[in-house]
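pasting for the record
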Amino acid sequence: MSLKINGALRFKKGGYILIVYSAPFCRFLMFNNINRVNVYYLNGLFQIEPGNKHKIHFERKNTTPIGVIYVSKLLQKKLQNELKNTRKTKPVKIIVNKIVTERDLIKYKKSIKYILPEGLSLTMPKSGIIKTGCSIFCIKGKSSLNFQLRIKNRILEEIARKKEKVCILRKGDGTFVIRKWKNGRPFNLYKYPNGNPVVYIPIPPYLIKDNEKELFKNGRTSLACKVELSEKEFQIDISKFFQTKEERELAYSLLKKGIEVRLPETHAREGDIIIKDSGAQIEVTTVKPVEKDFVKNNPHAEGVHLNAKICEGFLRVTKGITPMFFVVFNAEWMKFKWVRDLVELVKPKVICIPTYFQQGWEEEVANEIRLKLKGLRT
């Protein structure tokens, strides 16, 4: 398919250049890592086709990009002298063949929400979305700003290790979306000395909002943001990524019983495990009472941890943040009168489930949670 776009010829120190004025076309080339093409000149018209004879240099990448191609060998001597003597820019038309479609140019013309590679969408099934925090990092070059998306999350570590090729998109509200894409590139992976992972990937400047660019120009080096991806698309076993062994065991048992769960959102005040359809939250704590707890028999010392979990759950349900809150804790605590009294006091908003965390405990707890959730739906 052929498209006609505007361009210009100009003499520049070092040679004669063809300027490609179409910002959407240049964005398309940048986004798809196309920096070499074939250029022909015939009867006053330039033609650009797929190939590697001529390198395209991109300028004004962060605003309205233009392409610059050195074309001295294509121009007749008379035209070269005209451009050199007048030092003026000569408007020309450029025919683009077999590189980009009109649909692509429309997509790359407007704001970030329209920049979608062929076949990809910002829409994912609501039940299978994983949400986590991320950061936009700005790396200042000599004449431009370069950007990276960085995510500290063990799910992304697995995707990086598998070398999954991805495409980074962005919604109008600023949330980044990670999609699997055969023409994309994999994440880079770095492990901190403490073992925590961070994955990072370059992102094109046009995915950065104008107000964000201003902050970076004024000295900011990073900005916090959010990112989403699909469990199903990346074939993620979500139960593997909860924090503790007990959380992972319980999450796996719930999933086996058809109860879909998700991870708590980064920096959000949520439980350890979230039930997807209802929004109910589950806290799992394995803290045991120590000898001084039995002597004092009060909600202090190690007991303050359990007391805080139960009271926090009561507040969340009371405020309408979650419809039901479960606290799974070590059954040794039920020997204390203050614990037994508190468990009765917070019913039915908080469901306390004591267990000794012995073999098969997760199946028993998952069954009890399932029964309570059925009551919530009726």
